[in-house]
Design a protein that fits this description.
By secondary structure, the protein is α+β, with helices and mostly antiparallel strands. Among the domains are: about 45-165, no CATH class; about 465-500 and about 520-705, Immunoglobulin-like. About 30% of the residues lie in helices and about 20% in strands. It contains 19 helices and 21 strands. Helix 12 (about 255-275) packs across helix 14, helix 14 runs antiparallel to helix 16 (about 430-450) and helix 15 (about 395-405) runs antiparallel to helix 16. Bound molecules: 2-acetamido-2-deoxy-beta-D-glucopyranose (6 copies). The site of one 2-acetamido-2-deoxy-beta-D-glucopyranose has 4 residues, from helix 17. Belongs to the tyrosinase family. Its cofactor is Cu(2+).
Length: about 725
C-alpha cells in the first residue's frame, strides 16, 4: 500500500485537452482523464492493494486512504468530463430512490453508466489501475445509486472481457441484505428493525416459513424455501448481471442459455411442487392480455433499504385492465399479444423477419434457439428489435405484472412489486407462470421444427467408453440410492450493506444478525462404472440429470411427460486411463467436485446453483422417487480446461473467468431438450436407456426429514 501511495503522489496528472475530429469534419475538444502511466506498471497484474480496493467497492465502508493530490485533480477532471452524462443518469434514478431493473428508465441508466465505466477500463492494462481508480470515484461521488453501480459494473466487465471478472467480490446478500431478507429495515423513518442494530446485542432475525403464511400467499407458501431462498434469488440476479442485455459484441449462446437456465429452474420448481403435493406441478404459462385475472396474490414482506419503501404486494384476483394499469402500461399490454404472435410465427415456420424486413430462415447454429432467446428477452442482439419489440416480451411481462395496481393507487407511492427486479423476481408465484410461457414458446419451436435425436449414431454417437452403471451413496457410504434432505440453519452477521448505510455521526458498528432456515441434504457421492474398451487413455464427458419417476397419481411418467421434467445435476470431463478391458469406477463427491455446478457464498464460484438446493426436497412418506441419468460422450464435447476451478460453473452461468464461451458444445439440455421419437414417446425411460449405449440410469429415493432445525445461539 505504501508503494502505491508514493508513486501516485509523485505522479503528474495527465488531464489534457486533446483535439478530436467529429464526424462532420469539425474539431472538438474532449478531455481525457487518466491515471498517469508512470504510476502504473503496465505489464504487472493487479496489485494486492488494488485487489483489496476493488473488493471494498462493494462493502459499506469506504476504503482508504486515498492519494489525495492525484485524486483531487483526477476527480475534478472526471467531474468535468462526465458532467452531462451523470446528470442524465441521476435524472433517471436518484441515489435514494427505489431501483427496479425491469423499469425502463432504470435499465437505460444502467446502460449509460456501463458506457462510462467501459471508457475507463483499459483492456491492455492487466493491473486495472485506471479502472479501479475510476470505480472508486463513482462510489465516492455519492449520487450514483448503489444498485445502479453494481448492475452496470458486470455489464462493463463482460463487454471488455476484463480480468476483473474473476476477482473476488462479496456475495450479493452482503451488498444488499434488504433485497433478500425480510424486514431487516423498518420504515418509513430510517430505523433498523428490533433484531438488528448496533453494538453487540445479537438476537437474530429469523427467516423461515412464517414470513408468508399469514399473508396472501396461501398454500403456495409451502414453497417458501425454494422461491424465497436467498441464494436462489442471488443466483438469478448473478445470471442476469453476467449475461447483460447490452454488449459490444454478442455473448456466445446467451439467448440459448437464457432458455436453458430458466428451463432448468422451471423443471426444479416442478419437482419441488410435486414434493409438496401440488398436482399442477408444471404451472400453466400465462400470456398476459387485457382483462387477464391474476388469481394469486403475493406479498414478499420485503422493504427496500435504500428508499425505505416496501415492495408492493399484489392481492388475489387482480385484473389487468385500465383500472389497474397506467395508460402507458396498458398500451404495452395490448402490444404484448402482437409481439407474442410474431414470435409464435417463428416457431411454426422456422423463419424470422430480419432487420431489413426480409423473411429469412432461422440460423441453425446450433439450432436456432439462440436467435429466439435473443429476441424474447430484451437484447441489443435481437435480429429485429422493431418487429419483436425493443424491450422483449419477457421484460415487458415482468414490467407489467410488477407494476399492476402500483401506478394507479397514489397511496402506494408509485413503486414496484418484486417482479420488477431480477434480484427479487423468483419469489413471486407469477415468475414461474411468465417463464413457463417463455419455455412453452421454445418448446413449440423444438417440437415442431427440430427432429428427435437419433439413438446410437449421429446425435447419440456411440463411443468406446460406456457407462455400465451409476449409483449414489450417502456420505457414510452405506445407504445406496437413498438420500435424505432436512432443514438446516445458517447464521449470518452482516455489517450493514450498500443498501443500509450508516447515518452520519454513527460510530458503533452496524450489524444485522440473521438466522436462515433452509433446505439441505446429506452429502453424497456418485459412483459411475465406466468401461474403456480402447487401447488408449480416453477423456470422456459426463452429464447428469434427474427427474421424478412417478406422477402425483403414482403412475410412471412416460418419456413425453418426463423429458421436460429433467433438471441438471452436474456435468464434467473425466480422464480414463488405458484399462485393457477392465472397468473403472469413478467416484464423484458432490462437495469436492471441481466442476462446480453449484456455487456458494462468495467462495470460488461467483455464480452457481445453490448447493443446499441440489436435491429436491423429496417426500416424507418415502415416495420421493427420481430417475438419475448419466450420459457419457466423447471428451471433445468439452472445450474448457478440465482443471479450471469454477471456470466451469458453466451449466447455468457459462464461464465467468473472462472467457464467456460456453464450453460444452452440444445443445443445452441435450438429450432431453427435444421430444422423444414417436416410437419412444409412450415408453418409459428404461426403453431409452436400453437403446442408447452411452446412457445409464438408476432410481433414487429422496426422503425428507421434516424436523425443525436446532436453534443457533451465538
Ligand atoms: C437486545 O434485543 C432484544 C430483542 O430485540 C431486546 O429485547 C433487548 O432489550 C436488547 N438488549 C439490549 C441491551 O439492547
Ligand atoms: C389468496 O388465494 C389463495 C389461494 O390461491 C388462498 O390460499 C389465500 O388465502 C388467499 N388470500 C387471501 C387474503 O384471501
Ligand atoms: C379492473 O381491475 C380491477 C383491479 O383488479 C378490478 O377491481 C375491476 O373490477 C376491473 N374492472 C373490470 C371492468 O374488469
Ligand atoms: C420495416 O418495416 C417497418 C414497418 O412496416 C418500417 O417501419 C421499417 O422502417 C422497415 N425497416 C426497414 C429497414 O425497411
Ligand atoms: C432410506 O433410508 C431411510 C433411513 O435413512 C429409511 O427409513 C428408508 O426406509 C430407506 N428407504 C429406502 C427406499 O431404502
Ligand atoms: C404419455 O404421455 C402423454 C402426454 O402426457 C399422454 O397423453 C399419454 O396418454 C401417455 N401415454 C401413456 C401410455 O400413458
Amino acid at each position: 500500500m505504501h508503494g502505491f501511495l508514493v508513486s501516485a503522489l509523485l505522479a503528474i496528472l495527465r488531464c489534457a485537452q486533446i483535439p478530436y475530429h467529429d464526424g462532420g469534419g469539425g474539431v472538438v475538444q474532449i478531455q481525457v482523464c487518466t491515471v498517469p502511466h508512470n504510476s502504473r506498471n503496465s505489464m504487472a497484474d493487479i496489485t494486492n492493494t488494488n485487489r483489496e480496493r476493488y473488493y471494498h467497492l462493494f462493502t459499506p465502508k469506504p476504503y482508504g486512504p486515498t492519494p489525495m493530490l492525484v485524486v483531487n485533480q483526477l476527480y475534478k477532471c472526471w467531474n468535468e468530463q462526465y458532467n452531462t452524462a451523470f446528470d442524465s443518469i441521476t435524472s433517471k434514478i436518484g441515489p435514494t430512490q427505489m431501483f427496479a431493473s425491469f423499469h425502463g428508465p432504470h435499465a437505460k441508466a444502467v446502460g449509460e453508466l456501463a458506457g462510462i465505466l467501459i471508457e475507463n477500463i483499459d483492456m491492455e492494462d492487466p493491473s486495472n489501475m485506471q479502472a479501479i481508480e475510476f470505480f472508486d470515484y463513482i462510489r465516492r461521488r455519492g449520487d450514483i445509486h448503489p444498485q445502479l453501480f453494481v448492475s452496470a459494473l458486470p455489464m462493463a466487465l463482460v463487454s471488455t472481457r476484463s480480468s476483473l471478472i474473476g476477482e473476488p467480490t462479496p456475495p450479493l446478500v452482503e451488498m444488499f441484505p434488504s433485497r433478500f431478507l425480510p424486514r431487516v429495515v423498518e420504515g418509513p423513518e430510517i430505523k433498523l428493525s428490533a433484531q438488528s442494530g448496533r453494538g453487540t446485542n445479537k438476537t437474530c432475525i429469523k427467516v423461515d416459513q412464517h414470513w408468508g403464511s399469514t399473508k396472501t400467499n396461501g398454500i403456495e407458501n409451502r414453497l417458501w424455501y425454494f422461491r424465497e431462498d436467498l441464494q436462489l434469488n442471488s443466483h438469478h440476479w448473478n445470471w442476469h448481471q453476467f449475461h447483460p442485455t447490452h454488449s459490444p459484441s454478442p455473448i456466445p449462446r446467451r439467448g440459448e442459455l437464457f432458455y436453458f437456465f430458466h428451463h432448468d429452474l422451471m423443471a426444479r420448481y416442478a419437482s419441488e411442487r410435486m414434493a409438496n403435493g401440488f398436482t399442477d406441478y408444471f404451472v400453466e404459462g400465462i400470456k398476459p392480455i387485457v382483462d387477464y385475472e391474476l388469481k394469486q396474490g403475493y406479498d414478499a414482506n420485503l422493504r427496500d433499504g435504500v428508499s425505505y419503501l416496501n415492495w408492493v404486494n399484489r392481492v388475489n384476483s387482480t385484473f389487468l385492465n385500465k383500472t389497474s394499469l397506467s395508460s402507458k402500461l396498458f398500451s404495452k399490454l395490448k402490444q404484448q399479444e402482437i409481439i407474442w404472435n410474431h414470435i409464435y410465427q417463428i416457431t411454426q415456420t422456422d423463419k424470422v423477419l430480419d432487420g431489413s424486413n426480409d423473411t429469412v430462415p432461422l440460423m441453425p447454429k446450433p439450432d436456432g434457439i439462440n436467435t429466439i432467446g435473443e429476441l424474447f428477452e430484451s437484447s441489443q442482439w435481437s435480429i429485429n428489435s422493431y418487429f419483436y419489440s425493443d424491450d422483449g416480451w419477457h421484460n415487458n411481462a415482468h414490467d407489467i405484472l410488477g407494476k399492476v395496481l402500483v401506478e394507479k393507487d397514489q397511496s402506494l407511492k408509485k413503486e414496484y412489486g418484486v417482479l420488477s427486479d431480477v434480484a427479487t423476481a423468483v419469489r413471486d408465484i407469477y415468475f414461474y407462470r411468465i417463464h413457463n410461457e417463455v419455455n412453452n414458446m421454445f418448446m413449440r419451436y423444438k417440437h415442431k421444427i427440430l427432429n428427435p435425436y437419433e439413438l446410437s449414431q449421429g446425435d447419440h454417437p456411440y463411443i468406446v467408453t460406456n457407462p455400465k452403471s451409476i449409483q449414489v451413496r450417502d456420505e457414510r457410504g452405506h445407504l445406496v440410492n437413498n438420500l435424505t434432505t432436512f432443514w438446516n440453519n445458517r447464521d449470518m452477521v452482516l455489517n450493514g450493506g450498500l443498501d443500509i448505510l450508516p447515518k452520519p455521526g454513527d460510530t458503533d458498528p452496524l450489524f444485522l444478525y440473521v438466522c436462515l432456515k433452509h433446505l439441505d441434504h446429506q452429502e453424497f457421492t456418485y459412483i459411475i462404472e465406466l468401461e474403456n474398451q480402447d487401447e488408449k487413455d480416453r477423456s470422456v464427458f459426463v452429464r447428469l440429470y434427474m427427474a421424478p419417476t412417478y406422477n402425483p397419481d403414482r403412475e410412471r411418467f412416460n418419456l413425453t411427460e418426463q423429458y421436460p421434467l429433467f433438471f441438471a445435476m452436474d456435468a464434467f470431463p473425466i480422464m480414463l486411463g488405458r484399462l485393457n478391458g477392465y472397468q473403472s469406477l469413478v467416484y464423484i463427491d458432490v462437495r469436492t467436485s471441481t466442476h462446480c455446478f453449484t456455487g456458494n457464498f462468495g467462495k470460488t464460484c461467483p455464480c452457481g446453483y445453490p448447493h443446499h438446493l441440489l436435491l429436491p426436497k423429496g417426500s416424507d412418506d418415502n415416495l420421493g422417487v427420481y430417475d438419475l441419468v448419466a450420459m457419457v460422450t466423447d471428451g471433445s464435447d468439452y472445450n474448457g480446461q478440465p482443471t479450471d476451478l469454477c471456470a466451469s460453473s458453466y451449466m447455468h452461468c457459462s464461464r465467468l473467468d473472462g472467457n464467456l464461451e460456453y464450453p460444452d458444445t452440444r445443445p443445452m439440455g441435450w438429450p432431453f431438450d427435444r421430444r422423444p421419437s414417436d416410437e419412444l414417446s409412450q415408453a418409459y425411460l428404461d426403453r431409452l436407456v436400453q437403446q442408447v449405449p452411452n446412457m445409464a440410469k438408476t432410481t433414487v429415493t429422496i426422503v425428507h426429514n421434516d424436523v425443525e432445525p436446532k436453534e443457533h445461539v451465538i
